[in-house]
Amino acid sequence: MYYENSHSLPSLSYIKIPTGITLFPADILLTPKEWAVCNLNVTRWTSIARGGHFTAIEEPELLAQDIRAFYKPFRAKNKY
Questions:
Q1: Residue 50: which residues within 8 A CB-CB, separation 6 or more?
Q2: How far is it, in rounded angstroms, from Cα 20 to Cα 26?
Q3: Which of 17, 40, 41, 76 is the most buried (most CB within 10 A)?
Q4: Which of these, 37, 31, 61, lies nearest to 49 by C-alpha position?
């Protein structure tokens, strides 16, 4: 599946939507920062000390903290 996706899907253009990336050291595939900043509007890049591919189960609090931190600036801008 991974081979087919990387060799059959059309190329993507730059994605302007704000993107947060959280890396966990034991994950299966780590996104190269050079690729991410060239293709995505990376507004938050975080490397976490623990966790892996199933981070939501392994380190739920660390993941939740990073998700909250990513969305906090958006909540502040959109207060009624």
A1: 24, 25, 26, 58, 59, 62
A2: 19
A3: 40
A4: 61
DSSP state, residue 26: B
Instruction: Quote the tokens at residue 52.
Output: 């892996």
Q: What is the pTM for the complete model shown?
A: 0.75
Is the separation of the CB atoms in 55 and 30 below 8 Å? Answer: no
Give kind and range of the element (H or E) at residue 19.
strand 15-23
Asked if 33 contacts 45 with a C-beta cutoff of 8 angstroms, the reply is: yes
What is the arithmetic mean of pLDDT over 18-44? 92
pLDDT band at 38 (very low <50, low <70, confident <90, very high): very high
Show the tokens assigned to 21: 């990336």
DSSP 52: B
Percent of the chain past pLDDT 90, that is, above it, reads: 57
What is the number of residues in the chain? 80
